[in-house]
Amino acid sequence: MVILGILLTIFFGSAGLLRIITSTLEITGFCFLFKKCGARWWEALIPFWRSYTLARCGNCESEGRVVFFCDLLSTVFNIALLFINENSGLALLFLALILSFTVIILVYMIRISLGLCEVFGRRKLWWFPWTFFTFIPALIWGLFRSFRPMWQVGEFRDSALSTFSNTHIDSMDKGLTVNLEERTVSDFFKKRYLLRDIHMYIQPGHMVLLLGGSGAGKSTLVNAINGYEPAKGEMSLDGENIYKEYSKMMYEIGFVPQQDLMRGNDTVLNTMNDAAALRLPLALTGEDRKKRVHEVMEIFGLLPVQHNLVEKLSGGQRKRLSIAMEFLPNPSLFILDEPDSGLDGVMARELMEQLRAIADQGKIVIVITHTPDRVIDLFDDVIVLAKDTARTGRLAYFGSIAEAKTFFGKDSMEKIVRSINREEEGGEGRADEFIGRFAEVQHA
To answer: Which of 244, 325, 240 is nearest to 280 (CA)?
Structure first.
């Protein structure tokens, strides 16, 4: 919707009266809708801004920013067209930009409409009237009591939970100590929480499962722990502050991402040698580096295929190669993101048993996997992350596998995840309950 076009239609078009009526109905509907969603009703009266507020109601704040700026710029260019020659090249450029902005607004309004459908629990077919006949759904959703949002705008901004652990774990000489106060990003001049209030101590020799639904913050947490994306707080490994001593501690932490970045046309041995040049300390002699490469390849069963091309490896061999590359510096902390992805049950079991053997050497192994129940007997502890009503990743549980089943009242990890997922995601929607309960346990 271009503001200048609306004004011209109102004052000079034959459909001016109709436009006045539909605009009035649309604004009226927005006033009631915004109030339902926990936004300020008078924001519906502000041109441009009401589209942004509507997006916030649909949990699509980033899309709302795009619509806000595109609509504003489109109006500016429309006004500029009044003062330049309509046959000039500049006028054609402005028209092309206006058309581009209109297409962008259309695409993002569809995304906002789908977001509103999710928040209100309505069928996605509503996207069509929301995009092209906005005043109709605005009135219906704003005035009819049966149309109620499942959460409020304020819940996207701030934590709705008042229960925090208010704890701090002293750094230990051995093991991993996590004291994460918050991990935030700036979102349109506002602070948005990705993670909050995560405190735990992991003992050496423990293999830990990192569990949580989609968007719970698992990747954000491991990036905060390994120092790749530092959070507000303190991470210490064997008594050393990871953030303050990162140049030294980076050799003590191994991280294996889900997708490897290995060159397929290189041999296994060359791949390991290249990794050694990057991951092992520069002070290490060439002979010592060669010896370490041989040791690690033997540990992971890669010596028989050392001259094979990476692209010719099986799925299991390729996974072992990814892990071996990170294991070269002999890290004390090993983090793996879905190392069993794409592997069948037997191969996944063999790989996890190898990780169990690494943990048994006194190292900490943290694993993210979407199929934990088939290898759950190999883990010592489980970290359960969940999104509270503010969409912030919080610690819903940390402890032994057996105690986790008792805490959640479930007999499998899959059922635990289902219990903390939102109802619209097929879950039970009990994340706040367990987050609050575990915070109280820690505080006690």
So the answer is: 325
pLDDT of the residue at 16:
63
**Which of the four pLDDT bands, split at 50, 70 and 90, describes residue 188?**
low
| Two tokens, residue 297 | 């390849």
Give the Cα separation of 86 and 95 in Å (integer): 10
Phi, psi (degrees; rounded to nearest 5) at 338: 50, 60
Q: What is the dihedral of CA 326, 331, 334, 335, to 10 degrees?
A: -60
Distance CA 314, CA 25 (A): 63
Portions of the chain given CATH number 3.40.50.300: 176-443
CA-closest candidate to residue 54, choices 110, 123, 9: 110
For residues 369-392, give the mean pLDDT.
90
Neighbours of 403 (CB within 10 A): 13
Instruction: Return the CATH number of 176-443, one of 3.30.450.20, 3.40.50.1820, 3.20.20.450, 3.40.50.300.
Output: 3.40.50.300
Reduced to 3 states (helix: H, G, I; strand: E, B; else coil), residue 396 is strand
> Residue with structure tokens 């705008």?
153
Instruction: Please give the share of the chain, as a percent, with pLDDT higher than 90.
Output: 40
User: Could you write out the DSSP letters of every residue in 73-134?
Assistant: HHHHHHHHHTTS-TTSHHHHHHHHHHHHHHHHHHHHHHHHHHHHHHHHT--GGGHHHHHH-T
Tokens of 185: 């990003």
